Please model this.
Amino acid sequence: MIIILSGDGDLSTDFVVEYLTALNYRFIRINSYDLLNDRLCISSKNGSTELVLADQVINLDEIGAVWYRKFGFFYKSEQYKHLVSTFNVDIANNISKEFTSVLETVVQILYKKNWLTHPSTIGINKFDVIRQAQKLEIDTPDSYLINSRESLQELLLSEECITKSIRDPWIIRNGMKSIKRPYSMFTSILDKDEVHQISSRFFPSFVQKKIDKDFEIRTFYLMGKFYSMAIFSQLDAQTSIDFRKYNWQKPNRRAPFTLPSNLEVKLKKLMQHYGFNCCSIDIIKGKDGKYYLLEINPTGQFGMVDFPCNYGLHMKVAQSLIYLDKKYHEKKEKTIGIIG
Model:
């Protein structure tokens, strides 16, 4: 049986669930908020662990595969909003840490199962990805972590640069009276004529050499195979630096794309280094003909690749989960047979 650790309203999970249902394969979907809203009891007695959710006793021995999709996001819950309005942000954030430990408890109970996206791969560092890629002779933009105006000015004398978050893009939702709607961080060009306005010391920031791009590529990696899509974002001023600044009135043209085979070989080695069997990869095809790795998202969107390119990725994810589940139980039966 398959366990899916996801979130309310995640469409990709919804579609994968539809395929599992059509294939008549047993699964249980646990959305993170179910642990808040449904009856939950996790017990550990005499070396035995039991998980009860919504009055359903989940037989852990039957679970062979787990999909770690998008499990968490307490700050979006009604409980978090209630805590902020009733008490304050500090109390809400402390409770959020407590809830994270609850999620980690569920993960640890299932840790030795076969995973599609293992939780240990979630918190990768963008700068480390750049370093490891370079060791494998994968082209990347020159990258820096900088906290001084002087260093930034020196860098901008020789090359044009962009800046972006070193971790996840920050979405500001509340806490500032001037913010009337959610505000998201995007990749931005650094203007050398405006750098003098920055303080002499600032928070360490991720800076990269700007690559003149031919087009962008979003690749979905699943169980050893690459499914890529070209995004012609440079044709629109709004999306030319960051395609996530979507132009809903005039969307970017997108098309199926095949990465060069030698790049796929190198990328597969990078996937193996981090233990990825499922993730999204962002790449730029430069005007110089090179392919530049930008970053890896362990739980990235793949619906945006699936539908324009007609790859059938949601079905492939469902099939991969079934494969991992069967493989787990086959290995378990062989082990029991050897012991017996």
